[in-house]
Amino acid sequence: MAKKIKVKLILELRANQMSQREISKTRKMSQHSVGDVFKLSDELGLSFEDIKDKSDEEVYWIFYPDKHSSETLFKQPDYKYIHAELKKTGVNLKLLWEEYKDSCNKGISIAMGYTKFCEGYSDYVTQNSLTSHLTHKPGIVCEVDWSGSTMAITNKDTGEVITVYLFVATLPYSQYTYVEPCLDMKQDTWMKCNVNMFEYFGGSTVRIVCDNLKVGVIKHPKEGDIVLNEKYEDFGNHYFTAIMPAGVKKPKHKASVEGSVGKIATAIIAKLRNNRYYTLEELKAGVSKALTQFNDGAFQKREGSRTEVFNEVEKSHLRTLPTVPYEVAEWVYGHSVNLDFHIAYKTNRYSAPYKYVGKKVDLKITESLLEIYAKGERIATHKLFPSYMKYKWSTLQEHMPDQFQRTEWDDERIKKWAYSIGNCTGEVIERIFKSVRIKEQGYNATLSVLKLSKTYSDKRLEIACEIALSRIRVPRYNHLKSILASNEDHLYLAKKSEDEIKALNQSAQGYVRGSRYYGGGEN
């Protein structure tokens, strides 16, 4: 409805002894309108006492019957229908006004102007405590970003505190939010979070609005085309969604996710601050529970909750996800399967079938799995150790060699070679084999130690093992190599020879008695 003079309020204020100027100034009304109501009140002989039981509309009609008649000439729009239509893609008030005007022309009724039409819709939204959908439409945009605040997990083995970053995504219409803890903010992690985000929502949006982060955007010039990262662009093509970076230093272009980042700092980070988590999986479970409570919580200035608005309205507007989700994977080519039938990847070891020992294989690493391929055929699948776990072994029983199969090297042959060099070398090899779960896991470590004898000689390796055993419980290749490369064994041997010579000289000289023993001196 168009704005009308608030006749009843003016009469009430006049009855409270307020002047025309005071009413105009305090209520921000036109002094001409206030004066007109005062004049008509006197002419009609009506005071506030006479009309206090009537509605605002009735009082306005009494004072301005001509204006009321002209306003009722217009065909009233169905604002309930208009509110519902505005939720649909591409629909705006201008289009709906044109459709309303066409229907008026067909029905031989008078259509109100566009300004009056918009004012009427605004009044309808206010009177019915609704939210205007002029800014955001369901299923159109998803805003993504990293949270500035972080969380942490504790490594049980070392006590190290590991920083955990939070990926945040928000649907502006419903404010429905997704949060995922991550160990880094690298490109593959960013991609996996975007995939998981759409899986969480159960559909994709027309657009994704992101920051100008390096893992997503290569170049965002003031003029010309935006250049996206190749992987991120492929992701967008897979889900038929447009990647639209926000303007440089324009946080308001993704105001919803910026707001969500602030809210989850309290709802999730602060709420879980006193809990201690030892694995990323534990932290993810805690964050997921807190996130559900956050989305289910009632709005402060809006009816319902994020979850209710999402399920009742926005979810049905999301695009259907592709049958096969986008897969983020890293390939590492040309790895050799070691004698212990394991391959090494980032300090950890994963087993392969024993028959592939000595052969080249390729590794496919995803978010949670490490797969081993030989000539394009997958031969093993392992759960990937998190990056904070080091020197771990993933060994599948079926990959071990047959108990009757004779290998080129076995533990007995390796120990025999070690003791042929010396007892200290033999002791080092014994300790290495005792430190592993199965003997095959010690083959590479022991052979790498023994092969040092070919570079530095048996004698030098034996001395190095003697030095290492006095310092380290289980000496390895790196320890011995360091001793030999720095010639520490030569210095040790020289000092040892010097100490032996001193000891021999002392024993040869015997004990020399002084003059006192023989009665000399003062005696």
Could you please say which CATH topology of the largest domain applies here?
Nucleotidyltransferase, domain 5
Spatial separation of the terminal alpha carbons: 134 Å
Give a count of the beta strands, DSSP E runs of length 2 or more. 15
Overall structural domain count: 5
Binned strand content: 5-15%
| Poorly predicted ranges | 218-226, 403-407
Which class do the helix and strand fractions yield? alpha+beta
Mean pLDDT: 81
Shape category: elongated
What is the makeup of the main sheet?
A: 6 strands, mixed
Helix content: 40-55%
Number of H- or I-type helical stretches: 21
CATH C-level class of the largest domain? Alpha Beta
Fourth-tier CATH superfamily name of the largest domain: Ribonuclease H-like superfamily/Ribonuclease H
| CA-based gyration radius | 41 Å
CATH architectural arrangement of the largest domain: 2-Layer Sandwich
